[in-house]
Amino acid sequence: MNFASFEALRVACQDLPVGDQAAGQAVARRQDTLTKPRGSLGRLEELVAWLARWQGREVPSLDRVKVIVFAGSHGVTAQGVSAYPSEVTAQMVANFAAGGAAINQLARVAGAELEVISLDVERPTADFTLAPAMSEPEFLAAVARGYETVEDGLDLLCLGEMGIGNTTAAAAIAAALFGGIDQWIGRGTGVDDAGLGRKAAAIEVAVKLHGEVLHDPLRAAAAVGGRELAAMLGATLAARHKGVPVLIDGFVCTAAVAPLGKLHAHGLDHAIAAHVSAEAGHGRLLSAMNLKPLLDLGMRLGEGTGACLAVNMLRSALACHIGMASFADAGVSEKAE
Ligand SMILES: Cc1cc2ncn([C@H]3O[C@H](COP(=O)(O)O)[C@@H](O)[C@H]3O)c2cc1C
Ligand SMILES: O=C(O)c1cccnc1
Questions:
Q1: Cα–Cα distance, 59 to 51 (Å, whole number)
Q2: Considering the chain, what is the average pLDDT of its residues?
Q3: Phi, psi of 38 (to 5 degrees)
Q4: How would you classify the pairing of strands 65-71 and 246-248?
Q5: What average pLDDT does the segment 91-107 reach?
Q6: DSSP type of residue 116
Q7: CA of 160 to the centre of ligand 1 (A)
Q8: What angle do CA 87, 92, 96 make, to 5 degrees?
């Protein structure tokens, strides 16, 4: 998929399939026949209906679950916004390949295939306090790369990212889309108070410098985002078109997909927030986007780790739905009317 311009991408973000509502309703009807008080599995019941709707089948499956970790480097690291040096991004890509990162362990436990896509990690984006992070063609190429990585026939996609400095890019996108600055600033990898001040200062400068384009979610994502964030946006768009439900990870991932929610009121209906991270702005960003996280474990890592943990919960929800007996089959008496 190639997007020729911001406008072409905007059209693709506004013309979205609605999923198979009948499949979701069929799940809800079956849930009510199973041997439990109606609704007693709470959100697990909704999750199965959600899978059915977006996979487009009455009996959803979780056989092919994939985690894609997108990696990118950020010029804004020159402003001292991370507790770690930017070389860590490429070093972690090597660590993913060697199986040594947290996401390698969590993907294995979740029964998910892990793919790592490096988006020119040796070539950082421009420092967005001085110039747009990406030109229009660069941004669109990263979106297209993300789009292409989503294969047909996946049952679930977990988004992940690696990019030193990217909590600053994410905060800048949140500031552009939802206003304010300070409420989006957090400690990321663990910056001290001076580091927090440098993050806020960088975003203040960027908001002034790019002010004219920040009303447009896509131009904002190009001006102050990053390649791995653009790729996550592209992957989420592809998933919508290819019948693949999506688990969103932490703050960075949520900011990355926010433009789709801004461009279409139901643009993120096929995506669920797997967790709320400990990054200061994440809970607020989820509320602003009307997303209700599944887990709250105080995690603040990224890499798709929160998304991967939630796969286990989806598997549990689906096991109940598929494996439970109905009242009729099990000879269990129904609720007295
Ligand atoms: C060793 C290491 C592994 C990571 N895995 C994810 N991140 C996370 O931290 C980074 C964002 O935080 P900031 O904006 O403060 O740089 C991203 O790379 C994110 O994925 C990591 C960070 C480090 C240091
Ligand atoms: O919530 C996140 O996405 C996050 C938090 C801290 C560091 N990296 C990512």
A1: 9
A2: 98
A3: -55, 130
A4: unpaired
A5: 98
A6: E
A7: 11
A8: 160
**Minimum-distance ligand 1 atom for the alpha carbon of 191:** 15
Encoded amino acid at 138, one letter: E
* Residue 337: pLDDT over 90: no
Distance 164 CA to ligand 1 centre (A): 5
ipTM: 0.99
Ligand 2 centre from 166 Cα, in Å?
A: 8
Indicate which ligand has the atom closest to the C-alpha of 279: 2
Q: Which of 230, 240, 309, 238 is nearest to 273 (CA)?
A: 309
Atom of ligand 1 nearest to the CA of 170: 14
Cβ neighbours for 93, distance < 8 A, ≥ 6 positions apart = 71, 116, 118, 121, 162
CA dist list (Å): 333 to 29, 37, 326, 327, 330: 18, 11, 10, 7, 9
Q: What is the pLDDT of residue 150?
A: 98
246-260 pLDDT tens trace: 999 999 999 999 999
Q: Which atom of ligand 1 is nearest to the CA of 103?
A: 5
**Domain extent listing, the chain:** 63-317
Ligand 2 atom with minimal separation from the 253 CA: 3
Q: Give CA angle at 59 (30, 260), nearest 5°.
A: 105
Q: Using CA positions, which residue lies closest to atom 23 of ligand 1?
A: 189
Active-site annotation, residues: 303
Residue nearest to atom 7 of ligand 2 (CA): 188
What is the CATH code of the structural domain delimited by 63-317? 3.40.50.10210
**Closest ligand relative to 71 C-alpha:** 1
Strands annotated E in 123-232: 156-162
pTM over 0.90: yes
Identify the pLDDT of residue 1: 82
Q: How remote is the CA of residue 176 from the centroid of ligand 2, in Å?
A: 19
250 lines ligand 2 (CB under 6 A): yes
| CB of 252 shorter than 6 A to ligand 2 | yes
Confidence of residue 35 (pLDDT cuts 50, 70, 90): very high
